[in-house]
Design brief:
Helices cover 27% and strands 32% of the residues. The protein contains two helices and six strands, in the order αββββαββ. A six-stranded mixed β-sheet has the order 1-2-4-5-6-3, with no helix packed on it. The protein is elongated. The termini are far apart.
Length: 131
Amino acid sequence: MAKWIGRAIAAVVIAGVGYSVYDAYRAGYFTRPEMPDGAFSLSYRNGLRAIMVDVPNEQEVRRYFGFPTDVPFYLKDAWSFCSAPADEEKEQVAGFMKNREWPGERFEAVCKIKVDDDVVVRGLITSVPKL
């Protein structure tokens, strides 16, 4: 009987380790590029993978939401670097936030991917307080 209990425990441990490795693979953590000092990463089921640069990490008190934009298929799983919007982007951000009137929501960052000489906007990040 003890032999079967040991096998069951071993199977549960192996399954747990396997699932955590699979979850990290799906989140893209094995392909994440080097991050600058003070940066943190976010990965969403919708495919948006964000490295937050020059944005305070408030994950303990705020919940981050990622809103991907339509990009070519080969950029869907690429990591993007996210930071506060530039001056020319603030008008577009204001239009995005005007359509969203969630209590406590605030805009955090614009995510961009550099492809050769072009810059592609990959998505937007907002946050709300954790309650």
